Every structure is written in structure tokens, then in C-alpha cells.
From TrEMBL, chain A:
CDD domains: ABC_HisP_GlnQ. SMART domains: AAA. The keyword Glycosyltransferase does not apply. It comes from Actinoplanes philippinensis. It is found in: Cell membrane. SUPFAM superfamilies: P-loop containing nucleoside triphosphate hydrolases. Coiled coil: none annotated. The keyword Transport applies. Gene3D superfamilies: P-loop containing nucleotide triphosphate hydrolases. Residues 3-237 form the ABC transporter domain. InterPro entries: AAA+_ATPase, ABC_ATPase_HisP-typ, ABC_transporter-like_ATP-bd, ABC_transporter-like_CS, MetN_ABC_transporter-like, P-loop_NTPase. This is Polar amino acid transport system ATP-binding protein. Belongs to the ABC transporter superfamily. PANTHER family: AMINO ACID IMPORT ATP-BINDING PROTEIN, GLUTAMATE_ASPARTATE IMPORT ATP-BINDING PROTEIN GLTL.
TrEMBL record, chain B:
Residues 72-264 form the ABC transmembrane type-1 domain. This is Polar amino acid transport system permease protein. One of its GO terms (cellular component) is ATP-binding cassette (ABC) transporter complex. PANTHER family: L-CYSTINE TRANSPORT SYSTEM PERMEASE PROTEIN TCYL, MEMBRANE COMPONENT OF AMINO ACID ABC TRANSPORTER. Signal peptide: none annotated.
């Protein structure tokens, strides 16, 4: 297993967000996390990336416990990419500088080499002509594609996507989703929190339904989304269908 | 087909132009009225003749201008040195105050204590303490009064500037740090490449404004002895029993401040425009 989360607990004050959550992700697997707002999807991703400290349980990456307090969090994060709902590009840097920041300053690559690699990526996602632009000159979809490239140039073992299309206008969602589909084709291991049930169905190998801080039900997308076992899952999907999101 | 404004639109344009002309005429008229009233009020005052002689005497002004200019050169040099070092000190203290972890507790406490005490202490008292107190210790290698005075200005202004920098650092959204850390950057790297550049850009206008204030406060160094523009003017005032040299020095200080004030305005405008561009 590439990622193993065991009995993970996370509380904010009196509020239990993750309540003994257990989830495994195999290499090259794409897992979609679904569930209502506040069910713990984003929190789980932040815990895996060590941006949030867990309050119990363990998380292993490649068999190594990353939640060991002696583990070097910076080195762990270098192996895990995280893409945020609100892109979080650095507004004072050009697209190219956003992408090359970590390769140059974290991985110590020569600037020239990092730039070439960044330009290749931008070319692939159709943004080569925007490399010198500042983020506020880009559309939301373009910003999010740059943010994904920024995470990918670190060659992460695992890519975490936190509702990456939720802040986008509907007509811009497609360009980001097709990029994620391409990444799956290349074998990238991904965990994505999403509200796009249709997309989860297309791209995920497995769908995990989170409820009250646990994985209540998981399995192939057709089964979980089409014929769920748990009453809570059915209830959730019914609300989604009523909202016209499936 | 090229676009032709409709007759309704042409009417609107004509009406607005008429209003604009009217506003300009009104502003000119009211300015003239206020100006004349002030001129009549001041020159018509019973003591105007004596004030004119003892504050606006051209001969006295010419006589002391060279000395005052020479003093102003010292002010200018002091301004450059004090502003540079106070900005550096302020940035350093602001960053020290953001350090987390128990190891840094003494550093944090010291930095906090410094900004609390030196923002409260009047500059004049710090100046006296440094310029007269430190030499009083009779230590070997005590620097010149000029250097001690400059140090007093630097530590006083450093405390204010540190708070401005800190406000800038705190204004950078935590998601920016999260994004930097998620890429594997260490806290220091995130601070240096992501937080500080954004923070400094945001607080550039207030920083420059404090520098304008600093540029006149360097004149207080005259209290410790060095002959700057104010001291030179004071000597002239004492010799001729005429206040004109003070007016000369005042005018020169304003002239010296104008470029910096203009730069502050431009930077503030640019910052405002940039903030609006994103949304």
C-alpha cells in the first residue's frame, strides 16, 4: 500500500472531525472521497499532507510512518502534492516562478533546468504562452491547472486534490477535469475530495463515502454511487440528485 | 457601420460638459476669495510689520543660507543611514516576533519588549540617554555623539517600523503559507519567498510615510550638539535676534521631503490599483 491511514482522529476543540478513520490507497489507484460538507474530506487531506496534526492513529506513506513526531515534515511533504480548492498561487510571482519555486529552492535543481521542465509542462496543458503572466491575469481554470503543474513538478508519489473544481465557473470545470483524467492515464496515485459525482464515477477506481469522520462505505464507483448499501449513503446521493449534481 | 452616438447620448455629453465647466469656475472663485481673505487678514494685522521683519527678512535669510544648507547636508546623510538601518532593524524584529517554538521564547520576548518600550519612549529622551548617558559611562571606544544620536533615532524608529512590517506579515493569508509548506518549503523558505515579499509590498505606503516622519525627526539630533540645519538656524537666530533662519530651515525641510512624499503617493496609488486589479 502506498498510503495507509489507520484509526485517524482529528478534533478541533470539542468538534470531532475525523473519528477513527481508516483508508488504504494502493499505488496507481485513484480514490474519490465523497460526503457532505464537514464530513472530514478536506481535513483528511490536510492531515495526510501534515498541514494539520492528527490527534490519534497513524498514517503511513510507502510503509514509513509520517505521523511519527520525529519524522521530517518538510521531507514528507516533498513526496506529496496538494492542490487546493482556491488554487493558492503566489500572487507576487509569475506562472513560471510559481512552478519553479520548489524545484529550485527545495530540490536544489539548476534554475535553467527547472524552467525548461516547467515550460514543457505548461506546453502540455496548453498554457505555454502564459508563463510570464501573473496569476490575477488568468482565469480560474488556468490558475487551477497551473496549481496542479506546480504540485507535479516535484514528482510526488501521491497527489491530493481538495475539491479542485468547486471554485470554478461551470464552463471551466472541464479543462481541469480532463487534466486529472490524463494524470490517471499516466498512473499517478491520487486521492480527491470532490462534489462532482459524475467525474468521480469516470475517473475513480474506488469511491469512499465519508460520514461523521469515518469511511462509512467504499467500493467501485458503480456500486457506491449506483447501488449503495448504507442508508446514509443513499440519503446523501438522493440530496445530490435533487440538487441536479449527478 | 461605425458607431454614432445617439442624439440622447450627445445631449448627455453636452450637459455633463456644462456641469464640468461650472465646477471649475466655482472652484477658482472660492479659492480666490479664501486667498484674498487670508492675505488681507494677515498683512492687515496690527503686528504684521514686526513679524515680517523678524521672521521674513530677506537679508538675514541670505546671510545664513550657506550655513543652513551645510547643516542640511548632514541631515540628508543622517536620513539615508537612519532610514536604511531602521528599516533593516524593523524587519528583523518583526520576523523574530513571528518565530514559534519554545527555543525562541527569549528572542520573542526580547523583540516584543523592545517594540513595546521604544514605541512609548519619546525620541528626545532616548536621544539624551544615548548621546549623554553612554559617554558618561566613560567606556573605551565610545563612538562620537553623532553616531550615538543616529543610533537613538534608529532604535526608536525601528520599533515603529517593526510593527508596520508585522502588520504586513500578518495580513498575508494563511493559505499562502499552507501552499508553500505543501510544496516542501521549510518555514524559513516560506517566509522568505512567499510571505515577506507580499508583506513588504502591502506595507510599502505606511513604511514610506514613516520615513517622511523620520526625515524631519533626524533634526532632533541638534539637541545633542551636532550642527545640522536646525542647529545652524538656531545659531543664526541667536546672533541676529531674528527668527528668519528658522523659516529658511523649515522651507528647506519641506523641499527635502517633497520627493519622498511624491514617491509615497505614487506607491500608494499603485498598491491600490493592484489590489483592485485582482477582483
Amino acid at each position: 500500500m502506498l498510503l495507509e491511514c489507520r484509526d485517524v482522529r482529528k478534533v478541533f476543540g470539542d468538534h470531532v472531525i475525523l473519528d477513527g478513520l481508516t483508508l488504504d490507497v494502493a499505488e496507481h489507484e485513484v480514490v474519490a472521497l465523497i460526503g457532505a460538507s464537514g464530513s472530514g474530506k478536506s481535513t483528511l487531506l490536510r492531515c495526510v499532507n501534515l498541514l494539520a496534526e492528527i490527534d490519534d492513529g497513524t498514517i503511513h506513506l510507502d510503509g514509513e510512518e509520517i505521523t511519527d513526531p520525529r519524522a521530517d515534515a518538510d521531507r514528507v511533504r516533498q513526496r506529496i502534492g496538494l492542490v487546493f480548492q482556491s488554487y493558492n498561487l503566489f500572487p507576487h510571482m509569475t506562472v513560471l516562478d510559481n512552478i519553479t519555486l520548489a524545484p529550485v529552492h527545495v530540490h536544489g535543481r539548476p534554475v535553467k533546468e527547472a524552467k525548461e521542465q516547467a515550460l514543457q509542462w505548461l506546453d502540455r496543458v496548453g498554457l505555454a504562452d502564459r508563463s510570464g503572466a501573473y496569476p490575477d491575469r488568468l482565469s480560474g481554470g488556468q490558475q487551477q491547472r497551473v496549481a496542479i503543474v506546480r504540485a507535479l513538478v516535484n514528482n510526488p508519489r501521491l497527489l491530493l486534490l481538495d475539491e479542485v473544481t468547486s471554485a470554478l465557473d461551470p464552463e471551466l470545470v472541464g479543462e481541469v477535469l480532463s487534466m486529472i483524467r490524463d494524470l490517471k492515464g499516466e498512473g499517478m496515485t491520487m486521492v480527491l475530495a470532490t462534489h462532482e459525482m459524475g467525474f468521480a464515477k469516470q475517473v475513480a477506481d474506488r469511491v469512499a463515502f465519508l460520514d461523521s469522520g469515518r469511511v462509512l462505505e467504499q467500493g467501485p464507483p458503480e456500486q457506491v454511487l449506483g447501488d449503495p448499501v448504507e442508508a446514509r449513503t443513499r440519503q446523501f446521493l438522493k440530496r445530490i440528485i435533487e440538487a441536479g449534481r449527478l | 457601420m461605425t458607431y454614432q452616438p445617439s442624439t440622447r447620448q450627445q445631449e448627455r455629453i453636452a450637459y455633463r460638459r456644462g456641469r464640468a465647466v461650472r465646477s471649475v469656475l466655482l472652484a477658482a472663485a472660492s479659492t480666490a476669495v479664501v486667498g484674498i481673505a487670508l492675505a488681507v487678514g494677515i498683512t492687515g494685522a496690527p503686528g504684521w510689520k514686526r513679524v515680517k521683519e523678524s521672521f521674513f527678512d530677506l537679508d538675514t535669510a541670505q546671510k545664513y543660507l550657506p550655513q543652513i544648507l551645510e547643516g542640511l547636508w548632514l541631515n540628508l546623510k543622517l536620513l539615508v543611514v537612519c532610514a536604511t538601518l531602521a528599516l533593516a532593524l524593523g524587519l528583523l524584529v518583526a520576523v523574530l516576533r513571528t518565530l514559534r517554538g519554545p527555543v525562541f521564547f527569549p528572542v520573542r520576548a526580547l523583540a516584543t519588549g523592545y517594540t513595546y518600550s521604544f514605541r512609548g519612549l519619546p525620541l528626545i529622551i532616548v536621544l539624551y540617554l544615548f548621546a549623554f548617558g553612554i559617554p558618561g559611562l566613560r567606556l573605551k571606544g565610545t563612538p562620537d555623539v553623532l553616531v550615538l544620536g543616529a543610533a537613538a533615532i534608529i532604535v526608536t524608529y525601528g520599533a515603529y517600523l517593526a510593527e508596520v512590517f508585522r502588520a504586513g506579515i500578518e495580513s498575508v493569508h494563511p493559505s499562502q503559507i499552507a501552499a508553500a509548506r505543501s510544496l516542501g518549503l521549510s518555514y524559513r523558505q516560506a517566509m522568505r519567498h512567499v510571505v515577506l515579499p507580499q508583506a513588504v509590498r502591502r506595507v510599502a505606503p505606511p513604511l514610506l510615510n514613516d520615513t517622511v516622519a523620520l526625515q524631519k525627526d533626524v533634526g532632533l539630533i541638534s539637541l545633542a550638539g551636532p550642527i545640522d540645519a536646525i542647529r545652524a538656524a538656531q545659531i543664526g537666530v541667536a546672533q541676529d535676534a531674528d527668527f528668519t533662519p528658522y523659516i529658511v530651515a523649515g522651507v528647506l525641510f519641506v523641499l527635502l521631503a517633497l520627493p519622498l512624499i511624491a514617491v509615497t503617493d505614487v506607491v500608494t496609488l499603485r498598491a491600490a490599483r493592484r489590489q483592485n486589479a485582482g477582483t
